[in-house]
Amino acid sequence: MTVQDVRGKEFRLSDGTRLQDLLDVENGYISARIVSDPELYELEMKKIFARVWVPIAHVSEIPNKGDYVLRYIGDEEVIVARSEHNTIHVVLNACTHRGMPVCRSERGNSSHFRCPYHGFTYRQDGQLIGVPAHKEAFGEALDKELYHLVQAKVAIVYGLIFATFNDNPPPIDEYLGTMKWYLQMMLQHTPEGMEVIGVPQRWVVKSNWKLGGDNFVGDAYHTFMTHYSAVQLRIVPSGDPKFAYYGVHVSHDNGHGLGLIGAPPEVELPRFYGVPEDIAKKIEATLPPGQQKAFERLAYIHGTIFPNMSFGYFSWATEDGKAPGSYLTLRQWVPRGPYEMEVFTWVLAEKEASDAWKHLARETFVRTFGASGMLEQDDAEMWSNITRATKGFIAREKLNFIYRMGINRKPEQGDWPGPGTVYQGDYSEQNQLNIWRAWARLISE
């Protein structure tokens, strides 16, 4: 999508402001109003979250029949459950009688969900199976077949559960496009794939939900300043600003994108840096040559699946110069109004890995990300203060964010083996602009 596509629609907010006046993607300027406007927030819930595929859980969180977790699509709560038939379902957590949540526990195992208000009872797949005093209270006036819980469509991609309430969504493969190649590389690089270790950590940040995805999809530039304490401790690379030269940014249709950073060519690294030898052998036996080539020298992968799930595959140094521990983290930026989000963050490791390796992965994750992680707290401080500083009238009217890093850089495949629109180097804001293009297209439709 180009800016001209948005201009052609002449989409206006209630005060008459044109969408084209809030973002100029071609020249790299985005109005601060976009991250601090209540009207835009309501449009996002309606035009983005109600229409697109949203990743919300991982199959390893509900391995058994009857298992369930509560998650969110936009700001609406859903139940993700595995039925007695071993199928996965996502339903709105609201009784069809009066809208009361039928599930009150964050996770568990149950054969049914019963509304505490009037007792309507539903199976794990959302089918209405019980109505107290049905005959006496309703007679023939209530057909149970018409009042099942509101169902979402579900797709599973390498263990990641996507859902949408759009009645006619694009096929999931079409929605993900070339991003799927990279999801396979991260989530299915061994025969059994990745599994979630423990339960997701959750906390609230007084930040607009879009800032997390914007950061993860392409902002290597903030590392030396925001995470300077981690640089001093040598948890992240030393203060060499060229570290982000040794990587690529890859943009995909529909707003998805990621950055991949390796080591300088002259630095010798073991193949599949940061994973134990037994897992490295499984990667060699599982991934095709192109994905192996992309993966074998990487230290960091960061990216975002539009609209609100980011990920990081990181190999961090451990204490006292020990060998690095690597892990995959998934993180969902759950909207809680225009000025607040709840962060869900998972840590994953290869299912076949030893218990000792999984423990190291979680330990490394907790030290860096998660509610108490050094890097997480740095980022939350930035995002919450951006949101605070841009709430006011003057900031919303006069402040434009600058997205001009790499603005004139042309896509260059080079010897990169993966698909997508490739930009050499990790100092770029093309991925962020790609997100804003997708955002503007959906808001204006």
From TrEMBL:
Domain (Rieske): residue spans on this chain: 53-163
Lineage: superkingdom: Bacteria
Alphabetical keyword list: 2Fe-2S, Aromatic hydrocarbons catabolism, Dioxygenase, Iron, Iron-sulfur, Metal-binding, NAD, Oxidoreductase
MF GO annotations: 2 iron, 2 sulfur cluster binding; dioxygenase activity; iron ion binding; monooxygenase activity; oxidoreductase activity, acting on paired donors, with incorporation or reduction of molecular oxygen
CDD domains in the record: RHO_alpha_C_NDO-like
Keyword Iron: yes
PANTHER family (alphabetical): 3-PHENYLPROPIONATE_CINNAMIC ACID DIOXYGENASE SUBUNIT ALPHA, CHOLINE MONOOXYGENASE, CHLOROPLASTIC
Protein family membership: Belongs to the bacterial ring-hydroxylating dioxygenase alpha subunit family.
Name of the featured protein: Large subunit naph/bph dioxygenase
Species, as recorded: Candidatus Carbonibacillus altaicus
